[in-house]
């Protein structure tokens, strides 16, 4: 019987896409014989993942979980929206976001953490589910927020199920004020973030390279007017202020009332909450953002299938 080494397990995983613990079990069951172990995994439906790993998974769900001033958000992808409505897939996403909450949203720790009741890591559980459900899947990303004193509020847009959907937002409000009122206000701010997609809480937190790039574009545009440099400078500064109003959370017009900036709305709410309020941070995950999706001609696919 061949010795079951880490390198042997790694090789089997690379061949099949199955989870580490499943690969170890397969090798143990088959005396370290690689080909027999591959066949063993195939019979159990655990070797399907490798064939599907190259397919684009841009659908799925984003999910949030919060408790006592802590919040976590995750994105778990699948190939089709159909799978996102699958109860088994949704249960897995719920378990992963619960692990994320316990791990403070740290992606590396979440991947290595034990999946609830499975005796294997979160990453290995996702790989196993590829074989069971039959689509490529991935735990793509995660993040977390913590605030004390205060509240972390959440909002899900286009909810598929409780706490999961197409857009997930966390907002942390730091305050000694009434916890329930703070949570309600936080949800309103989270709804605003879902709608507007700000880039930063304040001007100082905005990526200065991004600001400078915008400034250079505005300068080039202003020079086309043929106006003197001192006028161009004033034009650019005015447009930069407008840019801040578009991308900085506190400077945006609050979608809830349509009149005040978010900054002014929070200031006005301090009397009701009973203490000063500070936006300690926000996170916004939109499903599939940044993933290059394959464009397919469905009619052509059907025609090709009929002709084959």
Walk me through what this model shows:
The relative contact order is 0.12. Helix 2 packs across helix 3. The chain has three domains: 6-47, Ubiquitin-associated (UBA) domain (Helicase, Ruva Protein, domain 3, Orthogonal Bundle); 59-203 and 249-286, Tetrahydropterin Synthase, Chain A (2-Layer Sandwich), CATH 3.30.479; 207-247, GTP Cyclohydrolase I, Chain A, domain 1 (Orthogonal Bundle). The protein is an alpha+beta fold and 308 residues long. The chain is built from 13 helices and seven strands.
Quick summary:
The chain is an alpha+beta fold and 308 residues long.
Q: What labels describe this entry?
A:
308 residues, alpha+beta, Helicase, Ruva Protein, domain 3, Tetrahydropterin Synthase, Chain A, GTP Cyclohydrolase I, Chain A, domain 1, 3 domains, four-stranded antiparallel beta sheet, three-stranded antiparallel beta sheet, 13 helices, 7 strands, 18% strand
């Amino acid at each position: 019987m061949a010795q079951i080494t880490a390198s042997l397990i790694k090789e089997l995983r690379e061949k099949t896409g199955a989870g580490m613990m499943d690969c170890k079990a397969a090798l143990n069951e088959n005396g370290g014989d690689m080909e027999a172990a591959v066949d063993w995994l195939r019979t159990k439906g655990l070797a399907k993942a490798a064939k599907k790993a190259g397919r684009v998974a841009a659908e799925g769900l984003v999910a949030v979980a919060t408790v006592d001033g802590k919040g976590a958000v995750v994105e778990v992808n699948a190939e089709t929206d159909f799978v996102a409505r699958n109860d088994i897939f949704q249960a897995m996403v719920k378990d992963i976001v619960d692990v994320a909450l316990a791990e403070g949203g740290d992606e590396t720790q979440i991947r290595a953490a034990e999946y609830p009741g499975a005796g294997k890591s979160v990453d290995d559980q996702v790989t196993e589910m590829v074989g069971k459900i039959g689509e490529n899947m991935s735990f793509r990303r995660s993040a977390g927020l913590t605030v004390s004193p205060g509240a972390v509020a959440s909002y899900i847009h286009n909810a598929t199920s409780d706490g999961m959907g197409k857009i997930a937002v966390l907002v942390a409000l730091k305050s000694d004020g009434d916890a329930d009122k703070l949570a309600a206000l936080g949800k309103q701010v989270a709804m605003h973030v879902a709608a507007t997609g700000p880039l930063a809480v304040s001007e100082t937190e905005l990526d200065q390279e991004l600001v400078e790039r915008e400034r250079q574009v505005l300068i080039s545009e202003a020079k086309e007017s043929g106006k003197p440099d001192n006028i161009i400078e004033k034009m650019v500064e005015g447009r930069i202020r407008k840019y801040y109003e578009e991308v900085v959370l506190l400077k945006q017009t609050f979608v809830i009332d349509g009149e005040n900036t978010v900054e002014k709305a929070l200031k006005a709410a301090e009397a009701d909450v009973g203490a000063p309020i500070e936006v300690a941070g926000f996170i916004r995950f939109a499903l599939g953002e940044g993933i290059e999706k394959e464009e397919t001609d469905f009619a052509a696919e059907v025609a090709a299938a009929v002709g084959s």
